[in-house]
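Re: that backbone. Tokens:
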């Protein structure tokens, strides 16, 4: 009886937060679905009536849709490869006993707390500017011609900027996993003559598999909606227009709320497909 009373009280206390959270999620989703079936042009007559699936057909058949999906997946894949690979390396290095270990860890994790807009502006103006950027001065120092990063290699530049932001997160999660590794197992393998590469491949990496899948899952969900970095650096030009940026252009630049809302629904579907796929991978790793 006490347990049932405790559960009822807990549900009652959690109810306001749950209702608020559901409202926070369902109201925008419902409005997006409603507008996606309307012909809504705020500056050209407002609500012009029911459009049916016309917005969905127009959005998916436009020449910009599939390139934007491809660009989104390329950026997500590139960032995941860089952050996971470098995250494992940094986690192993930060786990070693060094002087000022706490300060070094704080410095490594610090970029994660910088706003995406600020970090993109820093990279654009201080590092990648072809005239006064740090990379331009380095290129001239070695006698090479500076590179206009954001126009010559725009996708790679976006991947580098976003990877710099998310690398601390991956490092922190992987460092926690490294610190939970059984040291006796590593010592036993070393005594048996296993090389450092063999110890990493057969002991360390399998132990990190769960942490890696968690990093991939969480980062992918957030990276699918990448926007600020592209808005600040390239403005969607040079083949860097992602699905999120395409929706922004349809809603704000073209003033077509119905068409942009249909794109938002497509973005939700894409995010759910990727999330379900990754959740299956996570589930398999957690069952091991």
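Recovered sequence:
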């Amino acid at each position: 009886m006490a347990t049932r009373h405790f559960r009822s009280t807990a549900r009652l206390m959690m109810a306001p937060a749950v209702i608020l959270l559901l409202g926070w999620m369902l109201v925008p989703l419902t409005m997006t679905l409603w507008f996606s079936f309307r012909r809504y042009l705020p500056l050209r007559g407002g609500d012009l009536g029911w459009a049916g699936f016309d917005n969905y057909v127009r959005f998916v058949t436009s020449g910009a849709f599939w390139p934007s999906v491809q660009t989104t997946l390329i950026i997500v894949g590139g960032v995941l490869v860089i952050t996971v690979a470098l995250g494992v390396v940094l986690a192993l290095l930060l786990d070693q006993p060094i002087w000022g270990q706490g300060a070094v860890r704080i410095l490594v994790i610090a970029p994660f707390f910088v706003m995406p807009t600020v970090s993109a502006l820093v990279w654009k103006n201080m590092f990648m500017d072809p005239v006064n950027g740090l990379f331009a001065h380095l290129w001239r120092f070695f006698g090479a011609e500076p590179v206009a990063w954001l126009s010559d290699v725009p996708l790679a530049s976006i991947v580098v900027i976003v990877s710099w932001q998310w690398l601390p997160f991956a490092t922190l999660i992987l460092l926690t996993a490294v610190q939970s590794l059984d040291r006796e197992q590593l010592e036993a393998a070393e005594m048996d003559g296993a090389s450092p590469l063999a110890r990493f491949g057969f002991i360390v990496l399998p132990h990190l598999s769960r942490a890696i899948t968690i990093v991939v899952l969480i980062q992918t969900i957030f990276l699918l909606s990448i926007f600020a970095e592209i808005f600040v650096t390239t403005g969607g030009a040079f083949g860097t227009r992602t699905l999120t940026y395409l929706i922004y252009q349809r809603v704000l630049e073209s003033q077509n709320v119905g068409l942009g809302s249909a794109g938002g629904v497509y973005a939700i579907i894409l995010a759910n497909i990727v999330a379900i796929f990754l959740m299956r991978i996570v589930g398999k790793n957690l069952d091991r």
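The radius of gyration is 24 Å. The beta strands are 38-41, 46-50.
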